[in-house]
Amino acid sequence: MRIGLLTEGGYPYVSGDARLWCDRLVRGLDGHEFDIYALSRTERQEDEGWIQLPPQVGRVRTAPLWMAEDDGVVHGRRVRRRFAECYGELAAAVCGGPSGGSHGAEADRFGNALYGLAELARDEGGLVGALRSEDAVRALERACRAPGALRAAREARVPDLLTVAAHLERALRPLSLDWYEDDGLGSVDLCHAAAGGSAALPGLLARHFSGVPLLVTEYGVQLRAHYLSAASAGEAPAVRALLAAFHGRLAAEVYERAALITPGNTHARRWQERCGADRAKLRTVYPGMEASRFAEVGESTEGTDPDTLVWVGRIEPAKDLISLLHSFAEIRKEEPKTRLRIVGAAAGPEGEAYLGHCRALAAQLFPDEAEGVHAVGDNPVSFEEIGGPEVPNLAEAYASGAVVVLSSVVEGFPISLVEAMFCGRATVSTDVGAVVEVIGGTGLVVPPRNPRALAEACVTLLRDPERRERLGAAARARALELFTVEQNIAAFRSIYLEIVSHSPIRRVVVDDTGEPLPFGVPAEAHVPGRWHAARLLTATRPHWAAGAPVRATPQGPVPAGEGAR
What we know:
The protein is α/β, with parallel strands linked by helices. The chain is built from 20 helices and 14 strands. The chain has helices at residues 19-28, 43-48, 77-95, 105-123, 127-131, 134-145, 151-154, 158-171, 201-210, 222-233, 237-257, 266-274, 321-334, 348-365, 394-399, 415-422, 435-439, 451-462, 465-482, 485-501, and strands at residues 2-8, 33-40, 57-64, 190-193, 214-218, 260-263, 305-312, 339-343, 381-384, 401-406, 426-430, 444-446, 509-510, 535-536. It has a 6-stranded parallel sheet with strand order 3-2-1-4-5-6. It has a 6-stranded parallel sheet with strand order 9-8-7-10-11-12, with helices on both faces. A two-stranded antiparallel ribbon has the order 13-14.
């Protein structure tokens, strides 16, 4: 079948979200044809280029989400009135508050307004300019001042309204794309959005204009990511409330219209249900990770220092390395020979500042130790990066320690934890995100922001090598069963067939003799082999409709004694 893969800020670009997962999916399902529709987030991402694409990718269409050029169309009075009505309805649905998990009148109001704007962009053009116009700000202000609006919305000032209007213009840029014609997304059998939010918007419009079924995969729920980023952005309360309401409405609309939704774990699934997703549509599909790169380390104990703890990941405040360092101070009181290796790179400017703070704290808590007055001291905490002489690759990082530690206070799907499980390492983790679901009893779990509990769990495993070995073996077996690329690809192969088999035929199809086919694209057609070819119905009449009409034979009287049988 032909799949329209929808991405935002990731595949097929060299950097970005879900790049590896999408590439493995496309390469694994080589029996299907993929068209990639990608939204880029930054100019730098576009300049970096694409990864090498497999032959089953038929074409790639991209559009920048970080900018949008006005097409120069000037609307007349009638079209401006039409825009004001649609945008006013959208603003009223947003100012009415979050969806609260229900797809009621306000949610329908939001959806109708959204598709009304998309139809205006297709029929008239000029939507980018209209969304940036004074009319849009005035419509948003009227919605904020209307009875029943959110309290925070009623308190919005002009700068707040301008900020919200600018954000809505950026979020609605996919509505102006030319992707929705019959030779674009209208020609695919299935749209697969690799994320919610803006990435799923083209799928919503393909469903609206052409009836194409939509599959949405979320390994990290976009609405949750928006809440977390908004909390640290320092925006005004009115801005935060209105943007949260908009993204909540958009998430509810995506979940309502999707044929199926595939969360990456139970943690994401709970978020989706809270945002209005129907449980009957949910299919949990764990991310597929390449296990072969960790096969050599596996359950081997060679090169492992029994007195070393290892932390691997991106260095940022959410990882709570501060608590880990305080916990390590407690561990050193019980096990003085223990060392801690922190392996990873800083995530952006905030991560660089956090890394500097962690280095300073480590130097304060653990002054360089020396055996004598003439010896050189050595700090028991080391900060390293993958690719260095001590840690040439990721597998070596996990192999260097007896216990792998995760100290996060916020986590979605803990990839580093799964990698440690592939390596057969015992783990100590904080109870956040999908950690408990991933571990499944093969490691120790403690409350977040509790250095003493983290220290006690680490000391327990450092003192019991047999238990470490049992937990590591069980963890590796669990990871190989649930989190491999093979299980991920098999799951999506089945889901694709399930969706298409339940989707109505959108084009009348006949065979070579002109007979109509009730199933123009049967599921068997996707199995390798030679099958009866089908062609689209043309304007000519089929052979059974050719020639002059034939009158029905008149019905004679029924002989006596012979009734209807």
